[in-house]
Amino acid sequence: MNLPGIRIGIQLSGLRLPFKQALHAAAKLGVEAVEIDARTELRPSDLVGTGLRQVRKMLEDLNLRVASVKYATRRGYETTEELDRRIEGTRRAMKMAYELGANVVVNQVGHIDPDPLHPSREILRGVLSDLGVYSQRVGAFLACETGGEPLSLLRELIDSLPEGSVGVTLNPGNLLVHGFDLADLSTIARHVMLVHAKDGVPDRARGRGTQVPLGYGLAEFPNIVATLEEHAYRGYFVVERDMAANPIEEFRNSVEFLKNM
Hints:
This protein is an alpha/beta fold. The protein has a single domain (7-259), classed as Alpha-Beta Barrel (TIM Barrel), CATH 3.20.20. It has nine helices and ten strands. It has helices spanning 19-28, 50-61, 83-99, 119-138, 151-159, 172-177, 185-188, 221-230, 247-259; strands at residues 7-11, 33-37, 65-70, 104-107, 141-145, 167-170, 192-197, 199-201, 210-212, 236-239. The strands form two sheets. Strands 1-2-3-4-5-6-7-10 form an eight-stranded parallel β-barrel. The chain has a two-stranded antiparallel sheet with strand order 8-9. α4 (119-138) links the parallel β4 (104-107) and β5. α3 (83-99) packs parallel to α4. It is globular, with a radius of gyration of 18 Å.
């Protein structure tokens, strides 16, 4: 299968290095871009005045772009407890992403009740619609990460929102670990703004599978790339791996795997 050249990045947090060292390691791996964690690596409050200029200069010197900003919350947007704080944090992460040249903020939306009339779905729709309005203003969008629900349910939620409210971060590994598949990828592909290149294997007996190095699981990345290409996907494939015994070696192997497909 002849695949187009894909844009490759890595999730810096997986390197388990201080921020500056992680950027240098990413550059040595020969990737185009990085994903920055807005909670553990670089907070929006760090990017004021000279702080923002320094980070931009580091990225420029290393010939790196920011593919996305991760802003993981413990609770979803359907839970009212401390919801305002999560919304405000997400907005700050969006502003941070835009200031760093990215237009994607990654977080899971939380539990999506299968009943479209359930009160929690109403809360979720309201929050995501409001974040969508803010996105249009600030220039960076929430891309809901897959994994906690089948793709068909996430697509149903997104289709119920005003057009262009949110996007999708496709994470094949998360889907497989949670016992879901990618059979419905083509129906949600037009919403995909980012891919987390992560692999996994399901475990029906335990109810939860295991993430594995890229290329060793059931994620058919050549098929994923081809399906997204049919829908004119031009975003990054960001390697995610948070359980590597030797992060540098495994990230290098993952990058080579993607380049050689």
